[in-house]
Amino acid sequence: MEETPLFPGESIKATVKDVMYICPFMGAVSGTLTVTDFKMYFKNVERDPNFVLDVPLGVISRVEKIGAQSHGDNSCGIEIVCKDMRNLRLAYKQEEQSKLGIFENLNKLAFPLSNGQTLFAFNYKEKFPMNGWKVYDPVSEYKRQGLPNESWKISKVNSNYELCDTYPAVIVVPTSVKDDDLSKVSAFRAKGRVPVLSWIHPESQATITRCSQPLVGPNDKRCKEDEKYLQTIMDANAQSHKLIIFDARQNSVADTNKMLLAGAVRIADKIESGKTSVVVHCSDGWDRTAQLTSLAMLMLDSYYRTIKGFEALIEKEWISFGHRFALRVGHGNDNHADADRSPIFLQFIDCVWQMTRQFPSAFEFNELFLITILDHLYSCLFGTFLCNCEQQRFKEMPIHQNLKELLAIKAELQKRVEDLQREVATRASSSSERGSSPSHSVTPVHTSV
């Protein structure tokens, strides 16, 4: 029988023969189940072509024991509910469960964070010709849009994530706004998420800015700095004396879902036809806001409809601006009923797919590209969608990613130092035995690594 294909860094944890997969289309299929630290791999070699079921553990939402009496008195079963809407059922002999602990293995490996382990992405050892962490450069993206200019500046006031810990280090704000005023505006906005520029029209200079809701409260609290800040955003667009504020806070989740594309069209129309700047916000500015701004930008800017541009759009509007991927997807967590879980990014991709169906020639990519993105939203094979914000991504992840490499390098250097010490000691001993000249000296070797 052929061996289970493995990624670099992937290892097999359990293999069970005579497992029955209850396929909804083909009925019961018998084969061998292999569980690794990345995937569940089921294969039947008796069929032509071979039947293979390859499921990344990250896509599993929950694992439950079920009865399997119809497949034998000594059988037991498992139902695997997946985040991509698949439900998988397996049946196997009771003695195999007792011997190998299939249910326990799946529960432990599918939810590593709940079991004190790390996600597979930290153990993945594949070498790629391109550094994926450098696909998106914020300064280059803003320069592509013609920024900075006389009205907008590229600011690093948040370089240490002190202004807003869920915002990127590089943001674009009005040129005339001082850092002190920006701090006051931040205090008036939920989670400190001040209005910052996402996109600027190359001709009219109308802008899309994004933020969180103002903390008005029951007493209609006001903030002069916040009002002045919004006035500055409006004044930056000389072609209009209006500023449209799109409030995406939801009264009904179902209604809001239906309004996504319609809302994005309205934003794009205000920018393109009305030459009017818009401010988009929801409650915290990382869910509905990201959906609306990115969809509107996709409609307005053909660059974002290329493969490279779409990657930059996701990196900018979703990842760097703090969409909470870890919480919304629930990576490695066994609490499938967590209220923080929500298919926000999936809804965005579905809207993009609908646009590609209506205007296929306007996009450089098709649904296969979108499906691949969604596959790895759940797979935990790469680090792209693992964190809740840029600060968490860049301050925590590289430490874990590089720790083993650094330790290996240190061990190698230490070994070289020890070899040099032995070599020097041998030479010194040989010189002493030969009665070397008093003027001859041995250069000391520094041993600190």
Any overview of this molecule?
The chain has two domains: 12-118, PH-domain like (Roll), CATH 2.30.29; 134-368, no CATH class. A hairpin with a 6-residue loop joins strand 10 (196-200) and strand 11. It contains 14 helices and 13 strands. The strands form three sheets. Strands 4-3-2-1-7-6-5 form a seven-stranded antiparallel beta sheet, with helices on one face. Helices cover 38% and strands 19% of the residues. It has helices at 94-100, 102-110, 138-144, 179-188, 224-235, 253-258, 260-272, 288-300, 307-320, 325-330, 344-358, 367-379, 390-395, 397-434, and strands at 12-23, 27-36, 39-44, 51-56, 60-67, 75-82, 87-93, 152-155, 171-174, 196-200, 207-211, 243-247, 277-281. The two termini are 48 Å apart. The protein has 449 residues and is of the alpha+beta class. Pfam families: GRAM, Myotub-related. It is a peripheral membrane protein. The active site is at residue 282.
Q: Provide the β-strand percentage band.
A: 15-25%
How does the overall form come out from the CA principal axes?
A: globular
Distance between the termini: 48 Å
| Number of DSSP helical runs | 14
- Main β-sheet description: 7 strands, antiparallel
**Radius of gyration, taken over Cα atoms and rounded to an integer in Å:** 28 Å
User: What topology, given as strand order, has the largest sheet?
Assistant: 4-3-2-1-7-6-5
Q: How many domains is the backbone divided into?
A: 2
- Uncertain runs: 398-407, 437-449
EC number: 3.1.3.95
Family: Belongs to the protein-tyrosine phosphatase family. Non-receptor class myotubularin subfamily.
Pfam families: GRAM, Myotub-related
Active site: 282 (phosphocysteine intermediate)
